[in-house]
Amino acid sequence: MYRARFDTAAEIGLEELIEGVAEVVRPDDFETMEACGPLLAGYAKTPGILSGLVNDTVKNLLSNRVVAPIRTPQSFLLAVHDLFYIRCNVWMPLPQNIKSKAFQERLYSLEVPHDHNFSFLTVGYTGPGYQTDLFEYDRKRVKGQVGEEVELRPAGSYTLAPGDVMLYRQGVDVHTQHQPSEISASINVMFLSEYNRREWQYLFDLQSKRITGLTGNAMRSRHEMMALAGEVGSLETLDYLQDVSRKCPCPLTRQAALQAFEKLETALS
Questions:
Q1: Between the CA of residue 212 and those of 107, 189, 203, 217, what are the distances in Å?
Q2: 57 Rama sector, left if φ>0, alpha if ψ -120 to 50, beta otherwise
Q3: Exposure string (b/e) for 48-71, b if CB count within 10 Å is 16 or more?
Q4: How far apart are CA 75 and CA 186, in angstroms?
Q5: Around 96, how many Cα atoms within 13 Å sit in the side-chain half-sphere?
Q6: Are 177 and 130 in contact (CB under 8 A)?
Q7: Whose CA, among 23, 110, 246, 257, lies 20 to 30 Å from 186?
Q8: Does pTM surpass 0.85?
Q9: What's the mean pLDDT in 221-231?
């Protein structure tokens, strides 16, 4: 796990951050991601980022312009690039109501040990920050089956305080996030690569050290789309499904496309 502070980093703006990361980072190269740490720390010294995002969102509620609905108040998109995107995440103390607390724990992936099918660099921006318990594992030795035992190696517990920079490596780092004591915010650079398209995220049970589930919004969306195509597709859809079943980099998506193809072919014959 990469952790660092860059207290002497000069304050930079969003455009400088975008240009700097684009110049340095290479897909799936953890060292180049780490090299972006001083840039992210410099941007995190900019005052008013979170309040500006909140103000824009609240202002849009009274706008005559039709705007896209907010997916969640936790995450604000700051910028999108071909190799990464930048967001600001807000972490809230959870309500004491049992049902609401359980829902928000699932929504924000709190108290759930999980890995990521993407790497991201994060810096504490404001508030005390969330605490995270870290583990490492070798994904190359894992088949990815629910119930499979995995060797999880403890890697410490840390709090993402303002100015702290951490890199979560795809397919290496597993963590459990705990709710902060007060409202906190972090700024993330989310790196994009072919790995994102072909790998699932895993959920783990720490006591048994086993995989308990698979997750990942993009992966699940593709599978749901394959299932929908198998139900309502046309003859043209068969060609597309056949291409996906042969060429998609994700083996599970290829399998889902093949199943949809066979179902649709039977329905249309």
A1: 17, 28, 5, 17
A2: alpha
A3: ebbeebeeeeeeeeeeeeeeeeee
A4: 10
A5: 0
A6: yes
A7: 23
A8: no
A9: 84
**What is the H or E stretch that residue 250 is in?**
none
Q: How does pLDDT run across 131-144, given as a tens digit for each residue? A: 999 999 999 999 88
Residue 114: C-alpha distances to residues 93, 170, 227 (Å) = 20, 11, 26
Closest alpha carbon to 121 in 187, 27, 192, 31: 187
pLDDT for 134: 96
List all residues 6 or more positions away from 52 whose beta carbon is below 8 Å from its beta carbon. none
CA–CA separation, 197 vs 258, rounded Å? 17
Q: Under 8 Å CB-to-CB from 204, ≥6 apart: which residues?
A: 113, 114, 115, 150, 152, 174, 210, 211, 212
Residue 107 · residue 72 · CB < 8 Å: yes
